């Protein structure tokens, strides 16, 4: 590791990666809806006014890749997919509650 890379790494905020992950137009809203229970793609299309399939799909994929959402295929007719908060995602609920509390002041 070069001195420049090491210095840059030391100056990074530990929360920067999480903040970047949760930034975006729909991710915080998707996370909030998932706190209340399982969410489905078409439900998100209805609940998130102005959202399109592409943006919701991208946000869900990124939240899943980071480990905040778990994807479940429900093999009932009709076949459908639900997203739930993972254990990692549930661990962020108190953080969001603190942010909400702070923003209310």
Written description of the protein model:
Strands 1-2 form a two-stranded antiparallel ribbon. The protein has 7 helices and 2 strands, in the order αααααββαα. The mean pLDDT is 86. The chain has 105 residues and is mostly helical. A hairpin with a 5-residue loop joins β1 and β2. The relative contact order is 0.13.
Numbering strands along the chain, what is their spatial order in the largest sheet?
1-2
Main β-sheet: number of strands, strand sense, barrel status?
2 strands, antiparallel
User: What's the total helix number?
Assistant: 7
Strand content: 5-15%
In whole angstroms, the N-to-C terminal distance is: 43 Å
Helix content: 55-70%
Shape: globular
Low-confidence stretches: none
What's the SSE pattern? HHHHHEEHH
């Amino acid at each position: 590791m070069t001195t420049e890379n090491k210095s840059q790494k030391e100056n990074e905020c530990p929360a920067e990666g999480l903040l970047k992950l949760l930034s975006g137009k729909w991710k915080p809203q998707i996370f909030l809806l998932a706190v209340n229970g399982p969410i489905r793609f078409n439900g998100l299309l209805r609940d998130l006014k102005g959202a399109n399939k592409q943006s919701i799909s991208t946000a869900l994929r990124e939240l899943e890749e980071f480990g905040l959402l778990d994807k479940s295929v429900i093999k009932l007719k009709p076949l459908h997919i639900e997203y739930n908060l993972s254990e990692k995602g549930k661990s962020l609920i108190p953080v969001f509650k603190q942010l909400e509390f702070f923003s209310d002041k």
